[in-house]
Design brief:
five-stranded parallel sheet, Helicase, Ruva Protein, domain 3, Rossmann fold, alpha/beta
């Protein structure tokens, strides 16, 4: 793994984005946040209706980065062993019997957990150790996962039938939650043109796993001033309705605020965002850009908020406006 300069980081990231967008039409915010999550070494939750290109985005990113890619379709009958693997009994030539761990699809670089909220909570929780510790424990043995390792989970909106909302502890393991919107008429026309012709668009690899790890290491080392770090902490604390600095909309519509992982997500994402902007230091604008994706899934709203149609993004907009800057 070679060291990278900040200028090389930005150039490589731009080439990755450009290559991905040869296949993915529109969705600029989704593509950018997916790349930031990968380079910040965090997991990503994509929420949107079926058919909006979420699976294609992950598959394309894996091809551009020459990373191993595995897709698991989450269904109500999926079991934890179907994800992490299980011990298999082997019989040797001398009738010697022994158990061998058969690795599941989680042993990959990019794991697409498609429609994760279709599976039962027991199966959803099978990913917890893999997401947090980058390892799997089975039969008393711990198995390390390849690096880089990134879970990109997709889910349908919770109001659709046949879904199991992710528990708060697992939602908190995702660095970002990104909402995938519907394309415009112009973008839909472009999508149809690209996908219904004689030849489908293809991509060329521009990086590999070593490059990704080098970019992750560089991003970790980006300096952040103490006032900016303190602002991230104040912003996170202000999501709690019982905090003295919480604005009126938080006190009224939020039951529980973001955990310390919310502040970490702000800073980790802010470091990558700064590098993509050509700066080797984190600014307040970087935290503002990351706040919706880093905090929206960490807010638990009241019934009053749901009744009045207030969304986490509405609350975060008010929070950013109310929280004083250093």
């Amino acid at each position: 793994m070679t060291d990278l300069a900040p200028s090389q980081f930005r150039e490589t990231a731009q080439r990755i984005e450009d290559e991905v967008r040869r296949v993915i039409v529109g969705q600029h915010n989704v593509v950018r946040h997916t790349l930031i999550a990968l380079l910040a070494d965090g997991h990503l939750l994509l929420e949107g209706l079926p058919g909006l290109g979420k699976t294609m985005l992950v598959r394309t990113l894996a091809a551009v980065l020459q990373l191993e890619f595995t897709r698991v379709q989450f269904t109500p009958d999926l079991m934890p062993a179907d994800i992490i693997g299980t011990d298999v009994l082997e019989v040797a030539e001398a009738s010697e019997r022994r158990f061998r761990f058969h690795r599941g699809p989680v042993f990959t670089n990019l794991l697409l957990a498609d429609e994760i909220n279709r599976a039962t909570p027991k199966t959803q929780s099978a990913l917890l150790e893999a997401m947090q510790e980058r390892q799997v424990s089975a039969g008393g043995t711990t198995h390390a996962l390849p690096r880089p390792f990134l879970v990109l989970a997709t889910q349908n909106p919770i109001e659709l039938e046949g879904t199991y909302p992710l528990p708060e502890a697992q939602l908190d393991r995702f660095l970002f939650k990104v909402n995938v919107g519907y394309p415009t008429a112009e973008e839909l026309t472009d999508i149809v043109g690209r996908t219904t012709g004689a030849e489908l668009p293809t991509v060329s690899p521009v990086a590999d796993g070593d490059t990704v790890r080098a970019m992750q290491a560089l991003a970790r080392g980006v300096p952040i001033a103490t006032p900016v770090r303190a602002y991230a902490a104040r912003l996170t604390l202000a999501t709690h309705p019982d905090d003295a600095t919480a604005p009126e909309r938080v006190q009224r519509f939020v039951r529980y605020g973001a955990s310390p992982r919310g502040a970490q997500a702000l800073i980790w994402g802010g470091k990558v965002h700064a590098l993509l902007d050509g700066r080797y230091n984190v600014a307040l604008s970087d935290l503002h850009a990351m706040a919706p994706a880093a905090l929206r899934h960490r807010l638990i709203l009241t019934y009053e908020a749901e009744a009045e149609g207030v969304t986490p993004d509405d609350i975060l907009a008010a929070l950013l406006e109310a929280t004083s800057e250093p």
